[in-house]
Write a structure and sequence with these properties.
single chain; 71 residues; alpha+beta; four-stranded mixed beta sheet; 1 helix; 4 strands; 15% helix; 38% strand; globular
Length: 71
């Protein structure tokens, strides 16, 4: 899969369960470079499009890769 700057929809398995996430990448993202990264799972009563989206966008503007996912 090819990732681009901004938000990317991703899925992955954890302990046999399919999880959905949003991967926020900085402007000018280059897959050959390394980026500081944050993995975020909010409180149980929130979904990735709530606080994860706010934090993801902000961290991406600062040059981070940020994964917000629903648990």
């Amino acid at each position: 899969m090819e990732y681009t700057s901004g938000v990317n929809k991703v899925t992955f398995k954890s302990q046999g369960v399919n999880l959905a996430g949003n991967l926020y990448l900085p402007e000018g993202f280059n897959a050959l470079k390394k980026y500081p990264t944050v993995v975020f799972s909010g409180p149980f009563n929130q979904v990735k499009e709530q606080m994860g989206a706010k934090y993801g966008q902000k961290f991406a503007t600062k040059g981070y890769a940020f994964l917000a996912f629903d648990h």
